[in-house]
Design goal:
There is one protein chain. With 230 residues, the chain is of the alpha/beta class. It has a single domain, classed as Rossmann fold (3-Layer(aba) Sandwich), CATH 3.40.50.150. It contains ten helices and 14 strands. It has a seven-stranded mixed sheet, with helices on one face. A hairpin with a 2-residue loop joins strand 1 and strand 2. Helix 5 runs parallel beside helix 6. The longest helix has 14 residues. The model has no long low-confidence stretch (mean pLDDT 93).
Length: 230
């Protein structure tokens, strides 16, 4: 059914409103957003809770249509958003202009190492870089390259469709997060990935698919009983 939808459905842009900001989505790629109740999405995502106590530089890695980026920017934060899809990046730029917000967009894969890949043609939420697939015309950006270019972040949201496990397995990335005390929200796409979660970095287990490392006291208070034992 998903393949049939992607093959037969027309592409056109819709506008939805989440967290008080207008967000452009694509009819073909984003049924998850245009067909969902706004308030239910806001409660389920909990982006307002994740940003409690945060003011400064925010990296939204795997931003897709940029709901998190747009909300974070609307709260006065300096946002850098990464996505491998040029189509998704274009939608976020359009949304940012609509809301009068400044978001620094990066249409490159975010990684622990440098590699070449072919950018996807769609803005599907499950896009992931296929290393060496087809014509590999893009190069990933490592977290250290991003730090040199954009400055050290005060918060990172990392949602890159299973590629998070490479970050969990990287001792260098773990050391960087730990040494700098950077709050990091990471999506855990498989239960087996919890075996790689760092035990020497404090974290909240928000649910079976999200870990929040180095949470600020305001974040702990905001999530309260929604967290599971770590």
């Amino acid at each position: 059914m998903a393949k049939l939808w992607q093959r037969c459905t027309p592409e056109f842009t819709l506008r939805r409103r989440f967290y008080g900001v207008d967000v452009y989505v694509d009819f073909k790629d984003h049924a998850i957003w245009w067909a969902s109740d706004t308030r239910r999405v806001e409660v389920a995502e909990g982006f307002d809770l994740m940003l409690k106590g945060i003011k400064g530089k925010i990296w939204d890695v795997g931003c897709n249509v940029g709901i998190f980026s747009l909300y974070a920017a609307s709260q006065g934060n300096k946002v850098t958003a990464f996505d491998i899809s040029p189509k998704a990046v274009a939608l976020v730029k359009k949304s940012a202009a609509r809301n009068g917000l400044q978001i620094n967009m990066v249409d490159r894969a975010f990684a622990v190492r440098s590699f070449r890949y072919a950018p996807p043609k769609s803005a599907d939420t499950q896009n992931r870089p296929e290393e060496g697939a087809g014509e590999s015309t893009a190069t990933s950006m490592t977290y250290l390259e991003a730090e040199r270019e954009f400055g050290r972040p005060d918060f990172i949201k990392l949602d890159i469709e299973h590629a998070e496990v490479e970050f969990l397995k990287s001792a260098e990335f773990r050391g960087w997060i730990k040494a700098n005390g950077i709050p990091l929200l990471m999506e855990i796409h498989e239960l087996s990935y919890w075996d790689h979660v760092w035990n020497d970095v404090p974290y909240l287990r928000l649910d079976d698919t999200h870990a929040l490392f180095n949470p600020l006291p305001e974040m702990k208070a905001a999530f309260g009983s929604r967290t599971q034992p770590a």
